[in-house]
Design goal:
Elements lengths: L2 H9 L2 H15 L8 E2 L1 H12 L1 H10 L11 H5 L5 E2 L10 H10 L3 E6 L2 E6 L1 H11 L5 H14 L3 H11 L2 H4 L5 E2 L2
Antiparallel strand pairs: 1-4, 2-5, 3-4
C-alpha cells in the first residue's frame, strides 16, 4: 500500500476526527458537561486551527501571542496532512454535521437548538472518553493545542470568524479544491 492510500484511509477514519472533536469539545464545553460550543461555525473554525498547527501559529502571531506555544514539530510543517484545501465554506471540513451526528448516536455529544444556533456539548460518557483520549500520548498535542485555543480564541462565533478571515485572507479567494499555502 502506498503512502497516498494510507493517508487517504486515515482521512476517511471517522474515529480519528471524532476523537479530536471530543477533546476539543471537552476543553470548550467544560468539565461539568453543562456548557456548550455555540454553533457549528465556531466549532469548525476552532477545529481548523487545531487540525492545522501551522495555521494556529499564524493565528497566535496575529493575536500578538508567542507562536511557539503551538509547539509545531518539524514533521507537521512538511506533512501532506498539513496542506489545507479550500472547501465550499473555506478550509473547514464539510463533514462536521456527520461527525456530530455520529457522536450523538454514540451518546457522547448533545445537540440543542436555541433560536437558529446549534449548541454542542458533551454527555458524561463523552467527557469520560475525552479525558481518556487527552491522557493518551497520541492525543497529547491535540489536548495541549485545545487548551491553547481556549486561552487565546474562546471568542464569540462572529468575532472568531472575522479574525480567521482577516488573518487568512487567502482562504476566501481560492477556488474549490485549491491548496492553501502555509
Amino acid at each position: 500500500m502506498n503512502l497516498f492510500r494510507i493517508l487517504a484511509d486515515l482521512e476517511e477514519n471517522d474515529e480519528l476526527h471524532e476523537g479530536r472533536l471530543l477533546v476539543l469539545l471537552s476543553v470548550f464545553a467544560g468539565r461539568k458537561g453543562n456548557q456548550t460550543i455555540e454553533g457549528l461555525t465556531k466549532l469548525a473554525k476552532l477545529d481548523f486551527l487545531l487540525r492545522y498547527p501551522v495555521f494556529l501559529e499564524r493565528a497566535l502571531r496575529a493575536g500578538n501571542t508567542d507562536a511557539q506555544e503551538a509547539n509545531v514539530a518539524e514533521h507537521e510543517r512538511k506533512s501532506v496532512e498539513s496542506t489545507m484545501v479550500r472547501y465550499r465554506y473555506g478550509p473547514w471540513d464539510f463533514r462536521y454535521r456527520r461527525f456530530i451526528n455520529l457522536l450523538v448516536a454514540k451518546d457522547l455529544v448533545t445537540v440543542e437548538v436555541r433560536g437558529r444556533t446549534i449548541h454542542i456539548g458533551l454527555t458524561d460518557a463523552g467527557l469520560e472518553i475525552a479525558k481518556q483520549l487527552a491522557e493518551n500520548d497520541a492525543y497529547s498535542d491535540i489536548a495541549n493545542r485545545s487548551r491553547l485555543l481556549k486561552r487565546h480564541f474562546d471568542w464569540a462565533p462572529t468575532r472568531l470568524m472575522k479574525f480567521i478571515y482577516a488573518t487568512f485572507p487567502e482562504i476566501v479567494t481560492l477556488r474549490l479544491g485549491e491548496e492553501i499555502e502555509q
